[in-house]
Amino acid sequence: MESLWLEDLNVGDRFRTEEYEITREEILAFAGQYDPQPFHLDETAATDTFFQGLAASGWHTAAITMRLIVTSGLPFATGIIGAGVELTWPTPTRPGDIVHAEITVTEIKVSRSQPDRGFITVAYDTLTRSGQVRQRTTATLLMFTRTSPTGPAEVPQR
Amino acid sequence: MESLWLEDLNVGDRFRTEEYEITREEILAFAGQYDPQPFHLDETAATDTFFQGLAASGWHTAAITMRLIVTSGLPFATGIIGAGVELTWPTPTRPGDIVHAEITVTEIKVSRSQPDRGFITVAYDTLTRSGQVRQRTTATLLMFTRTSPTGPAEVPQR
Q1: Closest CA to A33 of B122, B59, B42, B111
Q2: pLDDT score for B154
Q3: What was the pLDDT predicted at B148?
Q4: Which domains does chain B have, with CATH numbers?
């Protein structure tokens, strides 16, 4: 894919990532390191919890979604630089889920003080093949124009 | 720590986690798997980017923060079950950072339809020893009362 800069984007632009299969082994490994709770670590222990079975950490779903966006979602020339994010996990991510993300550009704001950069807002859902929403995200990303100096950059005031 | 239930919490309650040292090796490993961008993977490549040096993926900071909260932050009887979250990354997380989280309960809402459960809102900062804020988070968590049935549970309407 061709690399995109701030001036290449329009509100309403849509992107779709490839797919990622989430294995039981990866769920256990991530949870063991970053979210060691019974419902993320052990099928039997998970049965009697709110999740009614093994579920991935929400942060694991978020990390996988980021991988999809970086590797096959948004071909931005200067990378995916998140300033802030809002997310919900409407349904638990399960072993064997095959997910992808669908992304829409919802807002573009060029900085007044530094017109070589700006913030875009993207909304994206992490979906299973049957359309269940595992994560719903709104993210504010920092982007640059082609004419931006290549040197160190300051975050503009919004 | 004693396990806490919904009725044990009050707005204004504060918690503080232990510390976690983030190594260069862990930054590279996480980024390789979930956020493979130059500024998270290679010092030299990172120098000429917005980050001006190697920085951890924001999702890595989020995952480490979750580990701290689960293992030493919030001793909730039924675990840390996130419904939704808002977060910003005011400064990049760097190799060698030693971080902890400081948590405040800011809102408690018992469900009207299912009074054995409710949502609490917690605000927490992920801080370095010198007080730099690496992540600022507001999370909505699902909690239960001592009298909640132990069986499978439905998410209440907010």
Answers
A1: B59
A2: 43
A3: 84
A4: 6-149 (3.10.129.10)
